[in-house]
Every structure is written in structure tokens, then in C-alpha cells.
Amino acid sequence: MRSLLFVPADSEHKIDKALACAADVVILDLEDSVAPANKAAARDIAAATLTRRRRHGQKLYVRVNALDSGLTREDLETVLPGKPDGLIHPKTETGACVETLAGWAGSDMPIIAIATETAKAMFGLGTYGGLKANLHGLAWGAEDLSNALGAQANRDGAGNLTEPYRLARTMCLYAARAADVEPVDTVYVDFRNEHGLIADCEQAVRDGFTAKMAIHPAQVDVINMVFTPSAGQIAEARKVIDAFAAAGDAGVVGIDGKMFDIPHLNRSRKLLERAALYKLV
Hints:
The protein is of the alpha/beta class.
């Protein structure tokens, strides 16, 4: 997966638009984008949507309400009969939270946890390894975290994340890799700013994130483009792999005046594995 698009589950019109776009995952949101008075209707619409025919290869996840909301069990009772492809777990604070949700939803249910939305959650990022739950990814969220911290903003005047949120992003990346699950980058809320979104995606890919959440269908094509290995990256990876193959049992090779060692080889192999997911190799 590259793109995960949130859509309010109480809006059939917005759901139709989301299902028509190229998002790898459409997230039917029962949490932050749904007003309290609309929660019941959102559950019913989400349940009905799960029974629809969807685009080939597109997955449908549901973001349930947080464990401390008192709404999670009712969310699950309504949507699980529709067999969602996975759940988004908001405001997760430790691996134990994921285990609780999995206990209610079934241990085989794929879960992506949004793991930085409270101050307390930042201290639980080392607890996601070795879970019995089917944890597929860790995502981070800047908006709820900035609210929890009482911040005026989470980006500066140039659109760059400020220090508390850069830390949350980095720690989420470390935590995901330590737990051997996919690291998922947060949303870019200025959805009309395509140049800013491209830069945000490029930074995420550069640092090791493999997917990004979105809040508008217009963001999906950009995210898919940036998170899909390019022809140039594939050619470079093949060059590195071929050079090591030709060198035999070498720990380092020279290519075009640059030295490449085993980490470069492993990185090249992983890139080709991702390219194969999208039938590029």
C-alpha cells in the first residue's frame, strides 16, 4: 500500500468519490471526521459500503473510535459483519491497546495503529514488537498531538514541521521498523498545495516511510506517484545488484566512481521487492 484515504463514513457522496479514485486503501472514518450526533448513521453507512463491489485491488479499512470513547465495541458490532480489510486504531498509546482491539475484532484482523496522537503515546512507541495482534503498520498523527500539547500550530511559516512533530515522525519510523511493520506518514492537510504535498511525500520516502495517509482524493495520485519506485530508481537498484553478483563474494563494489557496500545491496533488493508489488519488474 502507498495511499490511505480517509473519508467521513456519514457522507455517501464523499464515499463514492473515494471509491472511484486510485487510493490503495479507503478508510471509512467513524472517528474525528464524524460529529457525535452522526456516529450511528456513519456506522450504518460504513456497514453498507463494505458490502458493495469495489475497485479491483482497493482495500476498505474502518477507523473506529478510540478505546476510551466508549464507542469502539458498538463500531465493531456494526462493521465487522461486512468483513473490512482492516482497522485503523486511533489514539493508540501502547501495544496493549492494539491487543485489546484485536481481542474484540479477532486476532487475524489487520490493524494499523496511529501511535503518536497523545503525549502519553510517545512513551509507548517501544511496545509494539512481538504482539499477538495482526499489526500491519504504525502511523503518526500531528493534528491530534498538537491539540494534546496545547500547541498553536504544528508547522512553521514555511510549512515545515516544528520540532515536537519532527520528533514524533522520527520516533514512529523507528518504532515501526523495530516492530517489523510498515511505517505510514501522516496527512498533509493543505490539500490544494500540490507542490507542498510532493515535497512532503519525497521527504517521507527519502527517510523510509512506505505509505502516506490522505484527506482528499486529489492527493492520491501524487502520493501513489512518489511512493512508487521510479524507472531510474529501479535501474540504479539493478545496477547495484548486478555489480555485487559480478564481484562474487565481495563486501564492497565500485560503480561509476562511488563505493557501495552491503547496506546499499540490501536497500536495492528491498526497492525491487516494492517495485514488484506494483508489477514494475
